[in-house]
Amino acid sequence: MRPGEGGARKMPVAILGATGTVGQRFVTLLADHPWFEIGCLTASERSAGKRYREAAPWIQSVPIPETVAAMTLQPTTPEAVAAVVADCPLVFSALDSDAADQLEAPFAAAGYLVVSNAKSHRMDRDVPLLVPEVNPEHLALLEYQSYRQGGGKGGILTNPNCSTIGLVLALKPLVDAFGVEQVHAVTLQALSGAGVPGVPSFHLIDNLVPYIGGEEEKLEVEPHKILGRYEDGVIEPHPVRVSAQCTRVPVLDGHTLCLSVKLGREVSAAAVLEAWRTFQGAPQRARLPSAPEWPVQVLDAPDAPQPRLHRDLGRGMAASVGRLRPCPLLDYRFVTLSHNTIRGAAGGAILVAELAVSQGVVR
Amino acid sequence: MRPGEGGARKMPVAILGATGTVGQRFVTLLADHPWFEIGCLTASERSAGKRYREAAPWIQSVPIPETVAAMTLQPTTPEAVAAVVADCPLVFSALDSDAADQLEAPFAAAGYLVVSNAKSHRMDRDVPLLVPEVNPEHLALLEYQSYRQGGGKGGILTNPNCSTIGLVLALKPLVDAFGVEQVHAVTLQALSGAGVPGVPSFHLIDNLVPYIGGEEEKLEVEPHKILGRYEDGVIEPHPVRVSAQCTRVPVLDGHTLCLSVKLGREVSAAAVLEAWRTFQGAPQRARLPSAPEWPVQVLDAPDAPQPRLHRDLGRGMAASVGRLRPCPLLDYRFVTLSHNTIRGAAGGAILVAELAVSQGVVR
Amino acid sequence: MRPGEGGARKMPVAILGATGTVGQRFVTLLADHPWFEIGCLTASERSAGKRYREAAPWIQSVPIPETVAAMTLQPTTPEAVAAVVADCPLVFSALDSDAADQLEAPFAAAGYLVVSNAKSHRMDRDVPLLVPEVNPEHLALLEYQSYRQGGGKGGILTNPNCSTIGLVLALKPLVDAFGVEQVHAVTLQALSGAGVPGVPSFHLIDNLVPYIGGEEEKLEVEPHKILGRYEDGVIEPHPVRVSAQCTRVPVLDGHTLCLSVKLGREVSAAAVLEAWRTFQGAPQRARLPSAPEWPVQVLDAPDAPQPRLHRDLGRGMAASVGRLRPCPLLDYRFVTLSHNTIRGAAGGAILVAELAVSQGVVR
Amino acid sequence: MRPGEGGARKMPVAILGATGTVGQRFVTLLADHPWFEIGCLTASERSAGKRYREAAPWIQSVPIPETVAAMTLQPTTPEAVAAVVADCPLVFSALDSDAADQLEAPFAAAGYLVVSNAKSHRMDRDVPLLVPEVNPEHLALLEYQSYRQGGGKGGILTNPNCSTIGLVLALKPLVDAFGVEQVHAVTLQALSGAGVPGVPSFHLIDNLVPYIGGEEEKLEVEPHKILGRYEDGVIEPHPVRVSAQCTRVPVLDGHTLCLSVKLGREVSAAAVLEAWRTFQGAPQRARLPSAPEWPVQVLDAPDAPQPRLHRDLGRGMAASVGRLRPCPLLDYRFVTLSHNTIRGAAGGAILVAELAVSQGVVR
Q: Which residues in chain D touch residue A59, judged by CB atoms under 8 angstroms apart?
């Protein structure tokens, strides 16, 4: 039975690194979650011991949920979490990668299932890099983690980089239907992805920055793993070649990607649209609470998608696509958009956790 | 002898459509020009008869030049211009394309050399589409225009689309040194290119628009002509294949292009940089007043070029390039930037006029 | 019994001028309204006959409600509305004032109760200018309108200017408790208030405009009427003196007002805060569907309120106040914020309609 | 004789804290100064020893001057400066106030005349707070500083807060002509005043912040001193009462002030305009190199001044005023604008230094 349903009690969860941008999104999205309830929030040494209300530089456009505002921040250790909430099997990590490098493994070792938004373990051989509509079968990799040997209950699941998610959601239906061989991607990324304090205002008024450190590498590498074929504890990387150029633009939320793709065979534009329009995956079939009804939404307006108008489709969990047309160099060009701090971070991680619960791997 | 030099008097010029964004740039750039002096300003029926100060919705960050502010706007006809300034051989057209379709040819027929920023005649077989550093030899096409038959002095010269200019300036040194076969371009274009009123604020606060009507076509077609080979009154189009995706971003001035190119042969990055760094053309050799010393400026910072920081290099007449690196799909990727209303519009047209004067085709 | 409650059917309503910014907000807010259902949408001649989906330049961040998208736009006449929906007693006017000058009175004469967001009739002697928490008793003025003579059911109710609403909501508790004699107001207004196309982007990137035509006059005059005392069909204007300076800033939604006030007597800051914190009015007592629980929300953060963070409080229907401190010239200074297209336009008008229904004046 | 004129050599100067926003402005403005030449740049411990090019996060829209780019940053001590440039009598301080508290006095004690943009010593009894058009006679206070006792050559001169300068420039002509008793000021301040990194982008896209820590106090206090009467080493504070409310808006440069004033006597609007239009001061009479011809420029357009359009008037050294009209509460209302990092910081300090040189107090 699912937690929180049919009389079952909700599953207590912890949020590691709860005060930052992504942490705040976890708080907002989990505040009324039907399955999970926030049992513990952690923060850095500097903030531990303070109430959440005082320590978090709150920048969401909804108020801090009352129950959360008064919670006392704990240090980011398994012991501290266990002292506050006894039977919490699941922790969401909103830690930045330096902190995640150090702090996530101890939680996994202590029996927690860590669902992480950090890049630290994404490319680890035995850690699934999950987009639930795209590669739910990779979840099986969890059983191969050392944390699970000898009956352990812990482990690490990861969520891709915020710009990768929109890319693989738009690609997956094409990969399945026609194959995808080459992708040329230029991103126009929102600044919320840069965290707080993030980019100084001075740089992004009447300006853009055509560079985001480390981002192009992630966008070129992560799709190989996510789109790869899983068999017996091993993921065979998908051979797609990706060229990525990443830019930061004065937009708050919503990453826009201008894409050109070379497909595995010649197909009509109608076939491409059909592939997107009919696409659903495991989260839709399992009716997971955070799953959008249609993960890829095709927009017809000639100037869509646009970040402010379309980032909230499917409560921020859907990718939108538009402007499909032939490419003089590859096969097709189009534009895709997804919400970088919902689908591309906290919301995506929560959907991973819902998948894990629904498949019985959270013990 | 050059006008305005060595005691020679300046050449009077007219500006057609002087009240709009591009017209205002012409006014600003010509106010202290060493060769030209503004003799006449024209506007639409609605504004003709008013003083420039009253009719122009001035949006430049320098005040309207005093001498210009008091000028009375004329209707956009050769007769009206001739009535105000007798010996004016040259007119700059800042007309929008609907107006230019109707109004430029009569000026050429009446003996004026029209240097136009409108798209109306750019692709006409006998009209040069000029970037003076790139294809000065195309100027010879002027003699083949009907306006020049039988001793006529008129004619039409055109300036490319604002996003094309940065592209061809960055490509030309590579075309000359190595050949260029394919170009993948995604543009992040400033909103001043959209004119006034242009894009409503509502669309570009916390947003971008991944579509600019007609722009991708221009960017894919114009380079063929500009980079083409001229011989005996005919331009053989250059065979480069261009894929363009154009977006509008919340930047005031300065078009940024993310480019990937396939070159004619394998070369080192050092060779590419060297080609850019040593590039100069006819305007530099002829020391034209508006020519930047170096038309392509290579920037070393990892996050350059940026519109606000670099659009004014070479007084807005240089293109800047940065972030050269290999492309997993084509050969090299880089970012280029140029000022869309200076080099990409009024300033570019003035440089065309300077080239024409220096080569003796303004009679 | 209230419409839409306890088995009663919803009341059909029409929206006049449904395609603009305010019209779109009406559509969004009425799509799931518990009492009202959209029966008819009207537009200008140019758009009448088209489907709403095709004619409205939709700029909301939620999609057009499906049922509304397919509706055919009608001309803005009582006959056209009656032909589509027979028993519709209530129309919301999102017309601009030029159209409203001509088109609202015929609806009132034809027996419709018009709830208008336009300025056209706001200052008419017999038209209530309503903020339901502030002056619900002014509703009685409706009976004195010519439209109601001889048993007519029509009439006109109006909603104040978008910047007036935040002002009077913040002032009302102080007026009641201490009296208010002078108000110095500087507004920093969002650009959505300027409609579509509204302010060109060029003016509001890296800029602000310290002028909004006609706005200061409204802000100085409307409070006299709204805060005035009603007796026997006459409103005695409140004598408060208001000095207003209005500016347009690069914010999408949410008008911020920097206020200094001279009160009727000396009071402590604590008393002012208490007056705001305990303030509720007729809409709260009647539990109207659009009424916020607390119409004035006091924020404690030293840098609050801020438009993006606080404009949505009370689903966009609450005013927020912050930064209360003594003023060296008058008595107290503070900052207030309200959502200009929800509370300040469509939402405010809907609350007026709810008040009218609950008091039985919609027949 | 003035330095740099008539064959005299330029005066070498140092810039303390040269890598920040204000330091960069000093570098830009002094690069081609007719009197001064940059002899030494200092920075924090962390940056000392590096070349300026490497250590300064350059954000100006003109390139780093070549001669400066290669200079090696020194520690901020008199000894370090003296080791690099022997005969430098003048240092400009762009230090933040924490650093200035510690580091400026040692320079003054070592015989340097420090012209500081920091708030540290502004309100010291014996330190002039100078706006050269407003209170040049306060320069005499320098002789009363301890640094000057016993023949010392050092001392400290200060420049007001960036928002104060526009205020006192606009007020001074009115103070002289009519007297000013009360001022109500609401500021809309640019973000460059917040330094680098300054305000995170996240806070100022689609938002504003109605609070700037410590700013209102400065704006309420500094005018008393600047407008005060100097006699025999003492400044009698001017009794004007100022109420200030400061906000941060998404503008890069240029502080806009909405002002209401109560004058000493009843005057016509024409008289006010005349007072502004004819105002000139010591810098204009002495033809100081950085002095604008007219320090207060009256703009006639109904929507002027605007930051992007008018901040550069007088090369960023003039204040502009517009929208003069009666105030229902005080006497007159108007809007004033000045460039916060030129006139309000580096440029203002340079003008102070020019005044000091021209009056012979730099020894």
A: 202-203
Query: Which conformational region is residue A225 in: left (phi greater than 0), alpha (psi within -120 to 50 degrees), or beta?
Result: alpha
In B157-196, the residues whose Cβ lies within 8 Å of chain D are: none
List pLDDT tens digits, range B286-341.
999 999 999 999 999 999 999 999 999 999 999 999 999 999 999 999 999 999 99
Average pLDDT for chain C: 96
Is this prediction's ipTM beyond 0.90?
Answer: yes
pLDDT digits (tens, 9 = 90+) for A132-180: 999 999 999 999 999 998 889 999 999 999 999 999 999 999 999 999 9
Which of B61, B189, B202, B208 is the best residue to mutate to test the C interface, defined by the most C CB atoms within 10 Å of its own CB?
Answer: B202
B 248-287: CB under 8 A from A: 249-252, 256, 258, 260
- What average pLDDT does the segment B254-262 reach? 98
Residue C204 to residue B227: CA distance in whole angstroms: 38
**Do A243 and B328 lie within an 8 Å CB cutoff?**
yes
DSSP SS3 for C191: helix
Predicted local distance difference test score (pLDDT) of residue B196? 63
Residue B305: asked if its preceding bond is cis (omega within 30°), the reply is: yes
pLDDT over 90 (residue D202):
no
For D72, counting Cβ atoms within 10 Å of its Cβ (0-12 exposed, 13-18 middle, 19+ buried), the class is: middle
Is pLDDT at D165 greater than 70 in this prediction? Answer: yes
Establish whether A255 is a catalytic residue: yes
Question: Left, alpha or beta for D212 (phi > 0: left; psi -120 to 50: alpha)?
Answer: beta
* C-beta of residue B44 within 8 angstroms of C-beta of residue B121: no
Residue C3 pLDDT > 80: yes
Average pLDDT of the segment spanning B205-225? 97
Q: Which residue has the tokens 């909230």?
A: A312
Of A199, A205, A252, the CB nearest to D252: A205
Q: What is the pTM of this model?
A: 0.96
Match domain C11-160+346-358 to its CATH number in 3.30.360.10, 3.90.870.30, 3.40.50.720, 3.90.190.20. Answer: 3.40.50.720
D227-246 confidence digits (pLDDT tens): 999 999 999 999 999 999 99
How far, in Å, CA of A24 to CA of D56, rounded?
A: 33
CA torsion sign for A24, A26, A27, A29 is positive
- Asked if the D162-339 domain carries CATH number 3.10.20.70, the reply is no
Q: Whole-angstrom Cα distance, residue C24 to residue B209?
A: 20
Average pLDDT over residues A192-216: 88
Interface check A217 vs B, CB under 8 A = no
Please compute the mean of the pLDDT values over residues D59-80 and round it to a whole number.
94
Which residues of D are identified as catalytic?
162, 255
Query: Is the CB of residue D205 less than 8 Å away from at least one CB of chain B?
Result: yes
Strands (E), C168-288: 180-189, 229-231, 234-236, 241-248, 255-263
| All chains having 3 or more CB pairs closer than 8 angstroms to chain B | A, C, D
Task: Please give the torsion angle defined by the CA atoms of residues B260, B262, B264 and B270, in that order, rounded to the nearest 10 degrees.
Answer: 50
Q: Which residues of chain C make contact with D188, given a CB cutoff of 8 A?
A: 188, 208, 210, 247, 249
Q: Which of C184, C241, C302 lies at the smallest CB-CB distance from D260? A: C184
Kindly provide the residue ranges of all beta strands, DSSP E only, lying in chain B, ordered along the sequence: 11-16, 36-43, 74-75, 90-93, 113-116, 155-158, 180-189, 229-231, 234-236, 241-248, 255-263, 296-298, 319-326, 332-338
The two structure tokens encoding residue A214: 């480390």
Q: What topology does CATH give the domain D11-161+346-358?
A: Rossmann fold (3.40.50)
Measured distance between the N- and C-terminal CA atoms of chain C, rounded to whole angstroms: 13
The verdict on B208 touching C (C-beta cutoff 8 Å) is no
Residues making up chain D, counted from first to last: 363
Domain boundary assignment for chain B: 11-161+346-358, 162-339
Nearest to B312 among D58, D62, D205 (CB): D62
